[in-house]
From TrEMBL:
<protein>
    <submittedName>
        <fullName>Phosphosulfolactate synthase</fullName>
    </submittedName>
</protein>
<dbReference type="InterPro" id="IPR013785">
    <property type="entry name" value="Aldolase_TIM"/>
</dbReference>
<dbReference type="InterPro" id="IPR003830">
    <property type="entry name" value="ComA_synth"/>
</dbReference>
<dbReference type="InterPro" id="IPR036112">
    <property type="entry name" value="ComA_synth_sf"/>
</dbReference>
<dbReference type="Pfam" id="PF02679">
    <property type="entry name" value="ComA"/>
</dbReference>
<comment type="similarity">
    <text>Belongs to the phosphosulfolactate synthase family.</text>
</comment>
Length: 249
């Protein structure tokens, strides 16, 4: 029975209002239980950092996600490792062998020039749907606001479906200060200049999630969400938590 007036959420195959979880080692049994109850609340699943390369029963995990209409992809660190070792061709074959059709292009750990990332996206966009991450995992390498905007525009124009704002699992790098606070200069420039529905904000903590929800709305795209926090996040989106209580459409 639905009797409350709540913010309207996107449903089905979402183009925005996306929730992307980070899978850092869920077992098949754990994942099966989560998806049984919450798959309709999850859109993407990042098999985080480089764990996809050593995950037991990887094919089974990928199929489980796909059978529940959740899009799996591998964390950008694995892409960067392959790039660093000149193994991108092998990485592409690996993705095809696992029937994974989304790829993350990032430079969070190693410096990959923007033009090089643009060329990689242009070469791969006909084989994969592309997610491009902006920002460094090193808090000492903070991009200027101008660089954030330039990279976002360039990577989206090159063929990325979405751009992800780096935040790490800790929420202390990329778009965040080391204390976990959002870099407001970057946030304001992004929301003023880039199509907000094509940005996925990494937001691993409830405080960060609620910041973006209150600033942008129930259907902001959020990533690096812990699997166990999926229902809490949906409650936050629906104004069913004190901090988002007065959220409107």
């Amino acid at each position: 029975m639905n009797f409350l007036t709540l913010p309207k959420r996107t449903t089905g195959v979402r183009k925005f209002g996306i929730t992307s979880i980070i899978d850092l080692g869920l077992t098949i049994d754990q994942l099966s239980s989560i998806l049984k109850d919450y798959s309709e609340l999850i859109d993407f699943a990042k098999i985080g950092i480089g764990t996809a390369y050593i995950t037991p029963n990887l094919s089974e995990k990928i199929r489980l996600y796909q059978n529940h209409n959740v899009i799996p992809y591998f964390g950008g660190t694995l892409f960067e490792k392959c790039y660093h070792q000149n193994k991108l061709a092998e990485f592409v074959d690996f993705l095809h062998s696992q029937k994974v059709d989304w790829i993350e292009i990032s430079c969070g750990t190693i410096d990959i020039p923007l033009e090089e990332r643009i060329n990689i996206i242009k070469n791969l966009k006909h084989e994969f749907n592309v997610l491009a991450e902006v920002g460094s995992k090193d808090s000492n390498k903070a991009l200027s606001t101008e660089d954030w905007i330039n990279e976002m525009y360039s990577l989206l124009d090159a063929g990325s479906q979405y751009c992800i704002t780096e935040g790490r699992q800790s929420g202390t790098a990329g778009i965040y200060q080391t204390n976990g606070q959002v870099r407001m200069d970057v946030f304001q420039e992004l929301t003023s200049n880039v199509n907000i529905n094509r940005i996925i904000f990494e937001a691993p903590t409830a405080k960060q999630q609620m910041f973006f929800i209150n600033q942008i709305g129930a259907n902001v795209n959020l990533g690096n969400v812990k699997p166990e926090d999926v229902l809490i996040l949906e409650a936050e989106r629906c104004g069913l938590r004190s901090e988002t209580f007065f959220l409107e459409d």
